[in-house]
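Appendix B. One record, verbatim.
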Amino acid sequence: MVGTPTHCPYCALQCGMTLHDERDRDTLRVTPRDDVPANRGGLCQKGWTAAELLTVPDRLTAPMMRRGRDAPLEPCTWDEALGRITAEIGRLRALHGPDAVAVFGGGGLTNEKAYQLGKFARIALGTSQIDYNGRFCMSSAAAASGRAFGMDRGLPGPVTDLAASGAVLLAGGNVAETMPPFMRHLTEMRDGGGALVVVDPRRTATARQADLHLQPTPGTDIALANGMLHLALAEGLADEEYIAARTSGFDAVRTVVNAYWPERAERITGVPVPLMREAVRLLARAARAHVLTARGSEQHARGTDTVSAFINLALALGLPGREGSGYGCLTGQGNGQGGREHGQKADQLPGYRRIDDPAARAHVAEVWGVDPAVLPGPGRSAYELLSALGTEEGPKALLLFGSNPVVSAPRAAEVEERLGALDLLVVADFVPSETARRADVVLPTAQWAEESGTMTNLEGRVLRRRRAVRPPDGVRTDLEILSALAGRLDAPGEWSTHPAAVFGELRRASAGGVADYSGISYERIEAEGGVFWPCPSPDHPGTPRPYLDRFPTPDGRARFVPVEHHGAAEDIDADYPVYLTTGRVLAQYQSGAQTRRVRPLAEAAPGPFVELHPDLAERLGIENGADVRVESRRGVATVRARLTDAIRPDTVFIPFHWEGDGRANLLTNPALDPVSRMPEFKVCAVRLTPAVPPAEPPAPAEGHRRPAVSRF
């Protein structure tokens, strides 16, 4: 049976798949596509089971609303739901001004929805208070790439370039679990004689396949990268000709890394000097090489500087701007690349334009048909926005699309409190996520295979997502929801519900920007299997390798940025003597709102756990499989112990996909990177004790305004 060619709803690899609608057998079936270079016929367990998302038992098919503050969520009509939302928005704006209403988006939204959401916030609501969960994912790499190269785009070329590489250093990524089809490119590289170097405190599934595993103390990646650059300079492995011709700022970096002699770097990181030296030699001696970072190196209070340190290493070796080589970042969420390009971020307008740039404001305002003066300025970043909700100076209402911050945000218990302090919480979702259960109004939205649009994968390749099935009766797309709300709010401009029309407007709004989509059309994507941005005209071929001739900086040179090691924002001490790091597992994805509802995935990874070394477990009296109380200065999580020698004895690991008392983000540190505003998810100090029977839950705090959990 001929199906609908589309792409996986999960990670930024955006694997090609075909969805077969076999309703006569009461089933939907997925098969992989071999015409998409990213996966070439491969899928992971999440991809194979993606069709099951469309028929989960608790799928929302009607709006839900509370009739009173302490009442349960109950079904209502769309007219009632939209009327309640717009009436409350009007009341709050009249009392407190436009910034009384905030918007929070997601890195899984299509380009069309991300664009329309940013436009809705700025001209339908007039609010500056918009950001998205991609701030928790890609922001540090984006900031570091922007200041080094003048542009933020995930990979320096097609993902297939990795297979022809002679060496790849992957810092803080576990692609064997987070995007398994990606591994085939690294495996092909190794089969051809190339070497894989993995930097990770854990011996992950990816590290086990590496030729070299560097296992640093959490929070010490800057010292590691600086130490490796010191070794490259000391051994004469730097590409001095490239540095002179294509970069600026090297002398300042040379001065800084002089202080990171090998023994000092080893003392800080715990990585032996011979391993650092071998890693540098592998990269320097390969004809083609890549330095890649992922969340393990980026989700830190100094994440931007950490990425800059690895970029400095890549620049010193002459990698960026050479075909088949370079620095790249492994984007996480499905549209993590496109989602940050077109207006969801607090400081950006479509096309990756800065919202405080007068020329950018004028261009976008003209496309939207408004005066540039009505566009608000920059707002709060994601965690700062969530922390301000319901406060005297913060927003009083939140409209949330494509995110589940009750599970995914740092210091999650505080985020719950802030959501509970709102006058109005509106959540658009397809299931009753942990955040949706706390909402005043829940709007049922279409799923990935029930709507069309475009996604931009980790290569910067714009792809088509095609509708394969109709959404259930009573369900609307996000574009339909935004259009209906904009109409009720008398918003200026066009608010199409058709993805192709919205994409056409996005093209005009992005024209001339860093992320220029103006030459990309649905027809071109269809004919060419995707188009790489920037693509400024219909006859432009697209840009798969953007830095070959020059970097998009004022002088055309890449910029070295000197960075110093400062350690974690919160180090271990006598009270909290163990490092905690967090991450993902193979069978789950992000906050788990989707994957925890798919039976094979839930069976494969049924609940949270803490991974700890047997030596640490013995000292603490913790047995394998026992419940463990993990406590930080921000909260307590209770999880099951999993003993393994694949982790450092001073470090424990908890995946972050689950709700309730096992939430890793009850513990994590919200300390923010000063540049990217990325929270420090990847390291904080904890203590572990065997769990004891839980005490009686405390009475609700006086003045609590929203039930912690409500029935549907």
